Amino acid sequence: MKAQLKKYFFLTTLFLPFFLSAEVETYFSPKGGFRENLLEKLDQAQKTLDIAVYHVEPRLLKKPVLKALERGVRVRISLNYGADWARADHKEIYEEFKNKKNIKIRKLAKNNHQKFVIIDGDTEQFTIINGSANWAYSADHTYDEDTLFISGSDENHLRDQFVEEFEKIWKLSSEKF
């Protein structure tokens, strides 16, 4: 029995990576590539972008969201509105996009400290980006941060958990800025 288990374990560890299609990347800041990889992944969205973030600088979000909207991507953004220092940036984002089609922006009055995006969450080729980094210059150049990029169809259970969390946040968010 032990020999069979060893053989099974060996064969599984040898061949399993060829059958997995999930890809996981980790980026550590400062200067670890978080920002450029985030922008690259946002540019790859084909159907949906669901973003829940504590703080995002308008200059980081504007270009990739405009490009996504041009491609017909549906965008939903829930922004923290509990921190006084973040309100001006988040109001600027709202003003920039409020009259655009295919985008909804809401504010969450409680302190939501999460930072994640679900890209193409209703497809098998989704990407989840999650970590400690705010979407700001300082996260990539000043602070010690970590961010995971998870892509692929082998992590459906993980995708489903993030989708559920985003929907919970979305329901608690307000459309009034």
Describe the protein's architecture and organization.
The protein is α/β, with parallel strands linked by helices. It has helices at 2-19, 34-43, 58-70, 84-97, 137-141, 156-172, and strands at 23-29, 48-53, 74-80, 103-108, 115-119, 127-131, 145-151. The N and C termini lie far apart (65 Å).
Question: Helix and strand layout, with pairings?
Answer:
Elements: H1 2-19, E1 23-29, H2 34-43, E2 48-53, H3 58-70, E3 74-80, H4 84-97, E4 103-108, E5 115-119, E6 127-131, H5 137-141, E7 145-151, H6 156-172
Parallel strand pairs: 2-3, 3-4
Antiparallel strand pairs: 1-7, 2-5, 5-6, 6-7
List keywords for this structure.
single chain, alpha/beta, Endonuclease, Chain A
